[in-house]
Amino acid sequence: MLLPAKTEVARHLEQYRSWERLLLVAPMDHAVRGNFENAGYTLCVLMGKRCAREAVDAAEHYLRGGRRAPGDSSATPAPVAAPASATTSVSGTRGRRTPGAVTAFPPPERAVRPGAVPETGQ
After folding, report:
1. What is the reported pLDDT for 2?
2. Are 95 and 37 in contact (CB under 8 A)?
């Protein structure tokens, strides 16, 4: 398995931490939140993880000299569900997701044939 260059991992981890600090200062700034989420996504891709928190942990472990490969989940703890406040906005409607939030997809709507008889999928 190809491993990412440690200099790239360190650079992207520092960018993530910088945006994280800015987001703590200005949590309602959409540009800061977007850049923070993009930095988290980049770490996810770079480290082969599904959420930003796991990617940050894997990046820190990798930079400390750990031998765990970036996609190896053998030492990764089980994911924890995100609190409801992490996936809902102030008004209670679904808003933008925070990095690492567990998301659920709504069930697909039933297709309706031209004769107005819904398909049952059977």
Report:
1. 82
2. no
